[in-house]
Design brief:
Blueprint lengths: L8 H19 L7 E5 L4 E3 L4 E6 L8 E5 L5 E3 L7 E3 L2 E4 L8 E6 L5 E10 L2 E4 L5 E2 L4 E7 L9 E5 L2 E7 L1 E4 L8 E7 L3 E2 L3 E3 L1 E2 L4
Parallel strand pairs: 2-9, 11-19
Antiparallel strand pairs: 1-3, 3-7, 4-5, 4-8, 6-7, 8-9, 10-12, 12-15, 13-14, 13-16, 16-17, 16-18
Length: 207
């Protein structure tokens, strides 16, 4: 008998990341009319912390709303749910939980979705990585963080696409980023465990 294929939400979520990476790679030359600003500005976040997401355009209007696609497998509006509070074009999650992991974007009054970003919420080790694409020629710095350490930076191993690229360091610096640096990154600590994976995208200097 053929057994049905069972996938977890995280398997499905990483498929979403791959799809989003394809979209960013092929259409990153198109400037969206709005930017989704995340605070703290990183793609991975601890549980039980505050997270702010703001849709900002050149006119500073309030005509945008924050939406997300999570393990519920449907789009949710910040203004019409219990997961966040909406003020103007800013959505605030007062205390993050792992089910806040998903794809977030800004929706216009006409119902179009812009500027999707991946947000991962994890209770253990996280990778401090940029939420938006990195520009070619810039430097990229990654940290491995643990909520219950002081300071939170861990001495850890860093991986790209499953291969070890730097070991036992508190930060990994990539000088002069190029397209070849695109990929899935994560960090691993011998005692604290490993972070989720984050896709790092690279855009051209003229974009």
């Amino acid at each position: 008998n053929v057994q049905p294929l069972k996938t977890s939400f995280y398997d499905f979520y990483y498929l979403l990341i791959i799809l989003l990476a394809f979209i960013l790679k092929h259409f990153s030359g198109i400037s969206p009319p709005v930017s989704l600003i995340i605070s703290p500005s990183r793609s991975q976040h601890f549980t039980s912390v505050s997270l702010s997401l703001s849709c900002e355009d050149q006119s500073n209007s309030d005509r945008w709303r924050v939406r997300r696609y999570t393990e519920s497998e449907q789009w949710e509006d910040c203004s019409s749910s219990v997961w966040g509070s909406h003020t103007g074009s800013t959505c605030t999650i007062s205390s993050t939980i792992t089910s806040d992991t998903g794809v977030y974007c800004c929706q216009s009054e006409s119902g179009e979705n812009y500027h999707p970003v991946n947000i991962t919420v994890h209770s253990g080790v996280i990778l401090e990585s940029p939420v938006h694409p990195v520009t070619e020629g810039d430097n990229l710095t990654l940290h491995c963080l643990y909520k219950h350490s002081t300071p939170p930076n861990l001495r850890a191993d860093f991986y790209k696409d499953g291969s070890l690229i730097q070991n036992q360091t508190t930060e990994m610096i990539i000088s002069t980023v190029s397209k070849s640096h695109e990929g899935f990154y994560y960090c691993k600590h011998s005692e604290r465990g490993e972070s989720p994976k984050s896709w790092i995208s690279v855009r051209g200097q003229s974009q």
